[in-house]
Design brief:
single chain; alpha/beta; TIM Barrel; 8-stranded parallel beta barrel; 13 helices; about 45% helix; binds 2-phosphoglycolic acid
Length: about 260
């Protein structure tokens, strides 16, 4: 099976709704039809940028999917400060990043919360980008495999195989995020192959073959090509290098 690569921008808490529009317009001029055909592209801006991004992408017919960086699992209610999946669907959001390590570490998201969010995002016909990854201490203690495979199993607990297949998983070693220190392509490949095995255990071989697994952590124009050359790496979740349209366009073109 050939899996179409997916490159997603995770802007984190950067770009307001004005600079987001400028980004979208500049970025679209840097790419051509073949780039869009070769790679699925998603941009996950802050919530406050979603509406202006949606109208810009639609008006200018830019074939870039919109993603959110988080959402709550309930449809509506007394949950001050939260954003519901139904609100995202109304803004034509297709992807939702779930369980990013910053949400887990800074905001205390647990595997159980990640699982609820994954199920809710899927129920609303959006695609979760499920983030997993180990800390430096865990890596040095030889605990990478146990940590990451546990996170995968918990994230997809109770999800039907057919619903797992279209999901995206992002393997992001925490020590590689925003540090300029990326995992070697071989290391990333090794862990990502194990993740595919964990998906097979949770949801069967067919789902594991279909699921797209990204690498994330200091991805930039200079290292994307060697990462994409690995057989199990199906794309990237890009933080810092996604903030500038030229850098991100080069990542989408695998460095060219
Ligand atoms: P980075 O972030 O590319 O800046 O390392 C990746 C991420 O956290 O998704």
């Amino acid at each position: 099976m050939t899996r179409k690569p997916i490159i997603a921008a995770n802007w984190k808490m950067h770009h307001d709704h004005f600079t987001a529009i400028q980004f979208a317009q500049k970025f679209s001029y840097l790419l051509d039809k073949e780039d869009y055909e070769r790679v699925d592209i998603a941009i996950c801006p802050p919530f406050t940028d979603l509406r202006s991004m949606q109208t810009t992408l639609e008006a200018d017919r830019i074939p870039v999917a919109l993603g959110a960086q988080n959402c709550y699992w309930e449809k509506q209610g007394a949950f001050t400060g939260e954003i519901s999946p139904t609100m995202l669907v109304k803004l034509k959001v297709s992807y939702v990043i779930v369980g990013h390590s910053e949400r887990r570490e800074i905001f205390g998201e647990t595997d159980e919360m990640v699982n609820r969010k994954v199920r809710s995002v899927l129920e609303h016909q959006m695609t979760p980008i499920v983030c997993v990854g180990e800390t430096l201490e865990e890596r040095e203690a030889g605990a990478t495999q146990g940590k990451v495979l546990g996170q995968v199993a918990e994230a997809f607990a109770g999800v039907k195989s057919a619903a797992v297949a279209p999901c995206v998983v992002a393997y992001e070693p925490i020590w590689a995020i925003g540090t300029g220190r990326n995992a070697t392509p071989e290391d990333a490949q090794e862990t990502i192959a194990l993740i595919r095995g964990a998906v097979a255990e949770a949801a069967g071989a067919e789902a594991a073959e279909a699921v797209r697994i990204q690498y994330g952590g200091s991805v930039k124009p200079g290292n994307i090509a060697e990462l994409m050359a690995q057989p199990d790496i199906d794309g990237a979740l890009v933080g810092g290098a996604s903030l500038d349209p030229e850098d991100f366009a080069r990542v989408v073109r695998f460095g060219a």
